């Protein structure tokens, strides 16, 4: 990332992107626009290459090479995304690299599921530890994001995996120090805690950070829906979106250069922790919060590759600085009236540090990691109490709202694939997910309050089960496909034979072009009978008048009417059931075609059908199995 940044932004000092404000626009505007755009173009090409590697083919000796190439290409795409200044972060790819290495090691030496989980936790801990030079935070990240999400597995894993995770985090931190130095990721200003009377102010900051985190999540969902609609409405190739994303970031950077990814120098600028760097006004900080949220969400929606840790820290630092400056101003103004001289308030930088952790915890749902990360970086025990209060409130607000509205939350371990990789995955899994939360997220279309999570787990953990299962584990592999030339009577006969209420319409190359339901056929028959005044026939025959003219009607005639045979939203086998459920809620449907391969014109190869009954059965079965494993563990603790 650093090498690409130095190559692309040659001559720009390493004092953060705010330096661009001091340069005349006529000398820099071309570079500011073209560099992120070119980065998006390279990422688009890399995504297309990764999609080509994912195309299903016969198994051969090259499969292992493909498995190695895909994470490498994604890491390169992330480096290009960040090196050219697009608004994402490096921690998501860093964690994914660690998890990919762990997966490779596990597949080579041992296929035991328990050991694979331990290796994945170790690789994730290494990613965070090396990214921030914070080994303790890396360990807790692995526990929060990998080991704790599974109630059954975490009991078995914590004791056996702790030593592996700690060793991995320490080694990664040591290697990182050797290669990059022992300095923290960003310059940490001195933290000052004046008095316990400040604690309510930190709690209020936690509430604000929780609301900002929710705004971030909702904005990402909205951006996903908007880009998906644009792509489907105008039939734009998905490879265009990373370029559009880079170009948009370049335009925004002309006015707000701080949105560019510039390492953590921009965070240093916000915290005013670098000498000779002018601080930013409250008005500008407020604008940057909104602009950074929108820019990061748009980058993710366009398929650029990166994580949410760095943007979350940036947004949190800006939120804390604004809050701290406003509180200081208000107390100074009210002091002569209410005699508030007894209330001592810390510097805005102190609130900026706490705001970073609170926003990180809210966006990524890793409260312990956020607390320990800031504690490890500041090395000041006094920050722990304000951190715990603000982080706890922020995380509670976002987690409660997510359960209630299915608002987006993101974690690094399930980064949502770029649009060329999973065309109907609105978001994301960052590796939210990217993301650091095992949530693969889809953006709602329409009201964000109308969505409801899948809830099949026995213990009230309503999201875990659906997020752990993949579509490929729940979909029906037997389904009905018909051509445009197929007669409706044959379609209904096939539905009856396969016990299905829908049929996927395909072309001569078996590529999906639409979805036909039994309800569509019934509605078509009703309209036709009314138009031609044909006597109504028995509902048991689904309005198919075998002896009359309806027997000769073919699929294309039905599809020629508006409202029938529309191209449906689709899912891929690698998506999780939580994401599929959100897509169903978004589009108001009860079934989704499952597709695996995309042709040049973005049409899809169907491989199955997923409906709500499939999701229900799969989630209940997994919840039951995990409860049985848990009981077995209690009865046989040594096993």
Automatic annotation (TrEMBL):
Molecular-function annotations in GO: chloride channel activity
Gene3D superfamilies noted in UniProt: CBS-domain, Clc chloride channel
Membrane topology of this protein: Multi-pass membrane protein
Keyword Transport: yes
Localisation: Membrane
Family indicated by similarity: Belongs to the chloride channel (TC 2.A.49) family.
Protein name stated in the entry: Chloride channel protein
């Amino acid at each position: 990332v650093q090498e690409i940044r130095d190559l692309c932004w040659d001559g720009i000092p390493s004092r953060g992107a705010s330096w661009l404000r001091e340069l005349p626009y006529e000398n820099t505007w071309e570079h500011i626009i073209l560099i992120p755009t070119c980065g998006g173009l390279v990422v688009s090409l890399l995504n297309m290459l990764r999609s080509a590697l994912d195309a299903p083919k016969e198994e051969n000796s090259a499969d292992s090479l493909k498995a190695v190439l895909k994470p490498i290409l994604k890491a390169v795409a992330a480096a290009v995304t960040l090196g050219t200044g697009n608004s994402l972060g490096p921690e998501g790819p860093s964690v994914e690299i660690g998890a990919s290495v762990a997966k490779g090691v596990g597949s080579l030496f041992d296929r035991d599921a328990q050991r694979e989980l331990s290796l994945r936790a170790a690789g994730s801990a290494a990613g965070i530890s090396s990214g921030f030079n914070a080994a303790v935070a890396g360990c807790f990240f692995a526990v929060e994001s990998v080991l704790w999400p599974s109630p059954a597995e975490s009991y078995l894993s914590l004791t056996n995996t702790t030593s592996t995770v700690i060793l991995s985090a320490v080694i990664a931190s040591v290697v990182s120090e050797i290669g990059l130095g022992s300095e923290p990721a960003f310059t940490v200003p001195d933290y000052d805690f004046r008095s316990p009377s400040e604690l309510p102010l930190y709690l209020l900051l936690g509430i604000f950070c929780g609301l900002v985190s929710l705004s971030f999540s909702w904005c990402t969902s909205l951006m996903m829906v908007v880009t998906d609609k644009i792509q489907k409405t105008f039939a734009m190739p998905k490879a265009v979106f990373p370029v559009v994303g880079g170009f948009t970031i370049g335009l925004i950077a002309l006015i707000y250069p701080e949105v560019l990814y510039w390492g953590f120098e921009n965070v240093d600028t916000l915290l005013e922790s670098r000498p000779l760097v002018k601080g930013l006004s409250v008005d500008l900080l407020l604008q940057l919060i909104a602009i950074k949220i929108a820019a990061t969400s748009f980058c993710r929606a366009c398929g650029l590759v990166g994580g949410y840790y760095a943007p979350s820290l940036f947004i949190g630092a800006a939120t804390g600085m604004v809050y701290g400056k406003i509180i200081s101003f208000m107390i100074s103004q009210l002091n002569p009236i209410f005699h508030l001289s007894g209330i001592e308030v810390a510097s805005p930088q102190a609130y900026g540090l706490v705001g970073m952790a609170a926003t990180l915890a809210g966006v990524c749902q890793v409260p312990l990691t956020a607390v320990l990360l800031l504690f490890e970086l500041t090395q000041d025990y006094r920050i722990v109490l304000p951190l715990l209060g603000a982080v706890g409130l922020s995380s509670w607000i976002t987690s409660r709202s997510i359960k209630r509205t299915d608002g987006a939350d993101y974690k690094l371990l399930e980064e949502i694939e770029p649009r060329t990789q999973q065309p109907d995955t609105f978001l994301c899994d960052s590796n939210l997910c990217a993301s650091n939360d095992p949530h693969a997220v889809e953006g709602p279309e329409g009201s964000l309050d109308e969505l409801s999570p899948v809830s099949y787990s026995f213990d009230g953990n309503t999201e875990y089960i659906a997020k752990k299962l993949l579509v490929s584990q729940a979909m029906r592999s037997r389904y009905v496909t018909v051509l445009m030339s197929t007669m409706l009577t044959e379609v209904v006969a096939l539905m009856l034979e396969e016990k299905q209420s829908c049929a996927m319409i395909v072309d001569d190359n078996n590529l999906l072009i639409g979805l036909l339901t039994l309800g569509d056929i019934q509605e078509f028959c009703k309209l036709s009978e009314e138009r031609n005044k044909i006597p109504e026939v028995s509902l048991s025959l689904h309005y198919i008048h075998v002896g009359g003219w309806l027997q000769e009607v073919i699929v294309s005639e039905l599809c020629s009417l508006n409202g029938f045979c529309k191209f449906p939203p689709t899912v891929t086998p690698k998506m999780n059931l939580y994401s599929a459920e959100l897509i169903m809620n978004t589009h108001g449907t009860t079934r989704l075609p499952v597709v695996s391969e995309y042709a040049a014109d973005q049409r899809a190869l169907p491989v199955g059908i997923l409906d709500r009954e499939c999701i229900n059965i799969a989630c209940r079965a997994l919840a039951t199995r995990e409860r049985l494993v848990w009981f077995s563990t209690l009865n046989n603790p040594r096993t």
